[in-house]
Write a structure and sequence with these properties.
By secondary structure, the protein is an all-alpha fold. Helices cover 62% and strands 0% of the residues. It contains twelve helices and no strands. Helix 7 (140-154) packs parallel to helix 9 (203-218) and helix 10 (222-238) crosses helix 12 (252-291). The chain is elongated. It binds a DNA duplex through residues 2, 4-5, 7-8, 12-13, 15-19, 31, 41-54.
Amino acid sequence: MTTAVKRACDACHRRKVKCDGLNPCRNCGSAQLACTYNAIPQKKGPKGSRAKVISELRENQRQTSLAAKIHNTMMGGGVDPQPMQTMQTISIRGTPGLLSMDVIKSCMDFYFDYMYPTTPILSREQLQQEARFMEQKQCMETYCLLSSLAAYTMIQPGGPLPAGDPGFNVPAICGANIIATQILIDETLRVRKGFDYIGKPSFSSLCTLYFLFAAHACLERNDRAWYFLREATTLIVTSGLHKEEAYTKLDSVEGSRRRRLFWMFFVSERCVELIALMKSIFSDSCRCKLVY
DNA sequence: TTATTCGGAAATTAAAAACA
DNA sequence: GTTTTTAATTTCCGAATAAT
């Protein structure tokens, strides 16, 4: 067995061939190459805190197990039902894999108690009625609205995280609200695949989009937030909510609620564009500093 | 047939953690 | 302080491919 040389020349290193370590080395001599040893070797060994990979793996496994437990706590202990089959054939209450009514109710209460002043787009009475109707008729649009609302409320400070089993106190777990929000976003998108929300978008579907946008923004997933905002803007135009006559047929309370949603989307979009513009100006000024 | 390339296994090295 | 563990880096084997 041959022993490795202390250092291979630049060409042998690049060619991944055995170097004899002389100058010029045998390979460079036969290939008529200039034999150099100019490359600066990197420092070997771990950088920073050790066991980074193993700790990352542990953290990933912890997150996966935590997500499964939180999923079970919120969804009645089930996993991965099919979107159409589940919603059309069985009731919401106590159905494994679907968001439990207890979670929905606590999220609705949290929204109307603490968040309504900044997001005044839903009516408490109407939503409670729709939630009851959803239980009887399995309305997927309402389910999506409520699960996206739950996603948005869970990520708020002091959000209504479910208590969990004895010995598994969900609200006390660091990052549980982030995991819960992601589960609820996934749940909304999963069920949303089961119906056509593009052809003639309902007010519920537009509210769902707003909560999806807001939940992603709270998670600092700005690209996704921007995606749902743009999707909502497109659906608002196709459903004519940017025209005043869209509101004249409605009663004043309902009309003003829908106008608020329109303006919230409008303002959010302007804000996002303004932030993007400021970022580009900031990066340009940095470039100027470098040039001068 | 010979030369060359390059994926990846094995060896080397160094820093962090564990131990006495 | 020494030893062990872990991770980053380097060397170069050997299979695949290209050139002659």
